Protein 1
Amino acid sequence: MVGGILPSPALQPVQNLPVRRKQLSLALGVLLARVAFGTRPADAQTVRTVTCGGASYRYIFAAPKFNRPKPTLLLLHGAGGHATDLFLPWRDFAATHDAVLIAPELTRERAFEAIAPAVFRCIVDDARTATAIDPKRIFIVGHSMGGYLAYDAAMVQSEYFAAVAVSAAALDPEDEGILAKATRKIPIAIFIGDKDPLVPLAPVRRTRDLLVTAGFPVQYEEIPSHDHQYELAADHINRAAWKFFEAHPLQ
């Protein structure tokens, strides 16, 4: 498992009780509806549902109104979070940079990791039916659990995604073999707070060194005094990730 989708006992999943599912589904529906209908004239913003491999997935979708091929960001949130966690910090930035945002609601089930790369591609392909997406500029931003999944997608779908930005995540030693799945040395930007209480610096530095040794283009940054909360450093990470993406379209 890449990075361990459930990295600590404190983040263990709740039981899948029917009542709990209904409560979460209702809460998510209200939350996503608020995002979807709080639109601005500059973009088309909604919640879409797509079937991938026999299962349904919901994602927040926002696209600039101009019908020309646009760069696209697939936003992968952390464990216990929701699609809005990365969508909201990116929304205004994307609107001013003519970018498409795709933020799926992720499950914490371990079995999802094996199918995640295919599901992410399926979701992006669905978004391509709704707006013009530049196939050479489809990028991933993953935080925490989403960062672990971003590494999976980067390696398995290295010819589909142009580049990846990972925040607060590292590869576990037993998962080093996943690098061999990449048919292209996909560029990867890594961000980690030096005060992150959940993800120590050592495994992130080890991941950086592993990727560099394997020949992947890597940009690495330790953010001073930053903890695990993406939104607290979102302005900096978003701008740095975007600059990295602009320099690394799919060749």
Protein 2
Amino acid sequence: MTRDASGELTTLAGNELSGAWDAQGGRHCPSYVKGWDPDAGKWVERIYYAGAAENLWGPYSIGYLEWDGTNWVDQAEPVFEANEDWERGSVYEPNLIYDDGKWKLWYVAGSNMEDYLVQGFAESEDGRTGWSKHEIFARAEMKMFDFCVVKRRDAYEAVFSRVWLVDTPPIPETGLWWCSAESPFSELSKWSEPVQLMTAADRGWHVGPWKPSAI
């Protein structure tokens, strides 16, 4: 959704093309990115998101809306789907940057309801096809959610959540974290030692962060 000139909420984009794969799950986890499309020979703006064909709880795949100069246009098929056993058939929470000629994607694989979250990584030259082998960026024990990367001068910074999905008190590591690197590496071990910014202490209106972003 967005707001029109009068301030009223209005639909950002319909799902006439994408409904077959995203209509039952809504559009979750938006991530805006501008990058080069080698087939079109131009810079394009996209909003990547997760959608589901079956129901609100997944399984999910990842697609995008693309700006055509006037409207955000939906796509007939997702551009990224689970293909590894460890992904358990579902990929969501996309976070992307365009860097060094590649669309770089960090994402969650698995299921919140099953308390199984793995952070994955893949990259593509056009952001649609030819994705590299899906790699494990952070294993399930970390319960990493939304690894959001931004470039600052000649370095990269990332904020991410570590979540707690079971009905017991969260472990101390649950919360909001920050790290940095000289390059947007596909391996967490090459990033700096993460620093915890916030815990999951009960603050009345929240008990832990989800979906962080940085600018």
Protein 3
Amino acid sequence: MAHYQIILAYDGTDFQGFQRQGKTRTVQLVVETALRQLNWQGRTILAAGRTDTGVHAAGQVIAFDLEWSHSEDELGRALNASLPDDVAVKYVRVAADDFHPRYDAISRTYQYAIYYQSERDPLRERYAWRVWPEASLELLRCAAGILPGVHNFAAFGTPQRRGGSTIREVKRASWQEHPQMLVFEITANAYLYHMVRRLAYVQVQVGQGRISLEELEKGINEAIELPPGLAPPQGLVLARIDYRNERQEWLLH
């Protein structure tokens, strides 16, 4: 019996989130179903985080115990043969027996994609938020520059547990130009519920001149209430989970 660490990628469009919910189609359900084809005897897999309905992942990390007499690469291939087309194993390794993908993580990186167009584009809207009118890239970058540090993000999400802390540390935040779209990337030690989608929405409001940089700064430093709104889920990707002293081998695959 070995404890395996796996990196998953999935298109969240047709999933009702990651976490198992009875017979509802979720990422956890289809992964556990595939594992049972390999005689997995566990009750539940461990995961680094729970993505919402419609949210994608390039670097979700899961772990489980399995009696497997072949190589790690063969385990990845066997799982991929049983998984549906919108989920794939990217990387497999044997981990320490006490490895936990959630509690051992030191940071998580998300990306949020937007594009500018007055009319909808069915080929792009599966993975990005269509924004119109355009937002100023200079203002977006100024907004992202306010985020790093330890702040009270109460204006941008709710804690997972009632009464939990709303203090989070953002390590890096930036907006980058990509072909035909802009991508907001953020790395933090942890997140509030809906925090990244809320931050993306508010920054776009800043970029469009509807919220000032000063208001955003007060929302972060003083937790003042900001205009409501949430960016849609399809623009969000769980990009990477970082662990202390672990080489990010999956980036090479």
